[in-house]
Structure formats: C-alpha cells, structure tokens
Amino acid sequence: MKKENQKLSLLLEDISLLQDYVEDLFNFLPLPICFVSPRGVILEANLALKEISGYQTEEIIGKPIEEIFKKEEIEDVLNEVLKKGSVREREMIFLTKEKKEIPVSLSVKLRKSQEEVIGYFLGFFDLTQIKKVEGELKKKIEELETLREKETILRIREIAKSKDIERKVRELEDTRKALMNILEDVEEARKRAEEEKNKTLAIITNFTDGLLVFDKENKLSLINPQAENFLKVKGKEIIGKTILELKNFSNLEPLISLIGEKIKGVFRKELPTKEGLTLEVSTVPMMSGGEKLGTLVILHDVTREKMVERLKTEFVSLSAHQLRTPLSAIKWSLRMILDGDLGEITKEQREFIEKVYKSNERM
After folding, report:
1. DSSP secondary structure letters along 200-228
2. In terms of domains, do 247 and 198 share one?
C-alpha cells in the first residue's frame, strides 16, 4: 500500500508541475490565445487576449465567440475548421469591449479527444501596424501619382521597397512563424497533460480504497467513488470545502474528529461507520521539493477482517466452555482411581494414570 501511495503522490506531483508549466507558458505568450468549447463559448484566455480586448477574466470567460468576432465571419471559419481540422492566417475583424474593430490574422485548430470534438484553439496576430504601414504607403503613392511625374513615382516606390521595410516585414513574418510553432507545442503539451490527468483519475476512480485529497489550505480537492460510498456523501456537495465546513456534515464528523482540523499524521486508526463498516484511516503528506502540496487521506475497509477476528474469539471461548465439563469429569474419575476408591492399582498403572491426570490439569 505504501508503494502505491508513493506512486500516486508522484503522479499527482508530476501532473501539478506539468499543468503549472502549461499555464505559465500559455500566459507568457505575447500572442492572444483562447480555448473555445464546441458550442462557441470561451473557456480560457491568456493575458495578451485580455489586454487587447479590454475584458477582465471574469468578463471574457463564458462569452460567446461571436462577441469578439463578427458572427458571419467566425461561423464560416469554424465550419471550415470542422471539415479541414485547421485554418491558418485568415484575416478577420476583432471586436474589443468598447466595440473597436481591430484587423487580425486568425489561425484556428480543432481540438479532439478520442475522435470526439472538445473545442477549438484560437490564436491571432494584430495586423494594425501592418495595415497602418500599408495605408501610409498607399497614401504616399496616391499623393505621388497625382504629380504625374513618372520618375518621381518610381523613386518613391523604390523607397517604399527599401531594405529597412523589407527587413521589418521579414522580422514580423519570422516572429509570426515562431509564435505559431510555439502554439503547436503548447497544444501538444496540453494534450499530454490531459492524457496523464485522465490516467491518474482512472486509477483514483477505480482504486479499491477510499481516497480524499486535501490541498495545502486543507480544502477538499478530490474524493473518489469508493470514499463517497464509505462515507455516504456526494462529491459535488463537498468538493472545495474546508475541514471546518466538512465537520458540519454528520457522516464526515467522525472522520474529521479523527484526523483533526489541521490533518495530523494518522496510521491505520480504526473508524466505525453508521452503516456497520470498520475503516482503517491513514494520512500521507504530498511533498514536492520540501514543500507540502497537500494531504492524501486513505480509507481501507477492514470490516471482513474484524468480523473474522470476532468469530475466532467467540469460537475459542465457546470451545473452552464446552470442553470444561467433560474434562472435569475425567479429572475426578482419575482422582478416584489414584486415591484407591475403586480398588488397588499397580505401580505401572499409577504412573500411567498420573501422567494422564497431569495432562488433564494442563488443559
């Protein structure tokens, strides 16, 4: 059991570290990114998207994607993604909180899990500066064309195509490609994290012992079906609650009293339940680099073992009682023979009967 607990703790630690890495990378990227559900609802958004849109986290999460892109345009793109799997560099109009229109280059990738569509991955690049440069160049060209001087027009066009502008365009293109590669890496890392998380949850769900996971603030973050069955509670009603809040549930009060409000160290302490079960309770701290990440509480059902132990004790007591009466009769009969009440016996007979009498005394 100890090795399984250690393995489970390592798996939980690895998943926590991988999730932190993905979230940090997600928020670090300067490119606006968001995850959208199959129904077109925004589930997650990074800092870059919040800054460009003007929305706060609680405002943008849960919004329909049509509120930040024009409805007809985004519907066409999502339908194309469902057919092809992805769309790259599609020019769109992005709408801020103040309904300001920003030109962007949008890329979308379909997210699947076991051939089932679980949403969309959106990233876009702000084209404002590029459009501004294009507009300025176009304006200059139009002004120069009005001069009707062919040589002047050609000279200005050469300036517009100067090395400095070309260099800046190349840098922007290289940056865009690098960011797209990062987005693909982020998606792969996220997919691996989800797979590992699903594996760990499958292990926890099918574990024969009851498991409760508390975070470092002693809030319940996970409870498996076996623990729900042992304690007769529903996970959705108690997840996220503190130790003090859990104590208000009558079925959990004996467990909380046993482990304490600060979740002390417990090893194989017995806990009887109202349903007649006997559970062995153990607590295991989950550590990472010397820092406590939380506590794992294990509930092991020992009802059968306790029943067998009780039946064995009852059997021994009953057997001893049933043997006492015939052994007493044998004892007094042997005593009468040794005392001569039934007639004289030989020396050899006496020695043999005395051995039997002593054996009877020991019983």
Report:
1. HHHHHHT-SSEEEEEETTSBEEEE-HHHH
2. no
Domain count, the chain: 3
Instruction: Compute the distance between CA of residue 258 and CA of residue 269 in angstroms, rounded to an integer.
Output: 8
Closest C-alpha among 287, 269, 289 to residue 278? 269
Q: What is the pTM of this model?
A: 0.39
Could you list the pLDDT tens digit for every one of the 363 residues in the chain? 556 666 556 555 545 544 444 454 455 567 898 889 989 899 888 888 888 888 987 888 989 999 889 989 999 999 998 899 899 988 989 999 998 999 999 999 998 887 888 899 898 888 888 888 888 888 888 887 777 777 766 676 777 677 777 788 788 888 888 888 888 888 888 888 777 777 777 777 777 788 889 998 889 888 888 888 888 888 888 888 888 888 888 888 888 888 888 888 888 888 887 777 888 889 989 888 888 888 989 988 877 777 777 777 766 666 555 555 565 666 667 676 766 666 677 777 777 777 776 766 666
- 323/286 same-domain check: no
- The residue among 277, 301, 325 that closes a domain is 301
Do residues 277 and 321 both lie within one domain? Answer: no
Distance of CA 310 to the CA centre of its chain: 40
Name, in order, each residue with C-beta under 8 angstroms of 337's C-beta and a sequence gap of 6 or more.
345, 353
Both 58 and 199 in a single domain? Answer: yes
* CATH code for the domain of 216: 3.30.450.20
Largest Cα–Cα separation, the chain: 157
- State whether 80 and 194 are in the same domain: yes
In this structure, are 92 and 30 located in the same domain?
yes
Domain around 198: 2-128+181-204
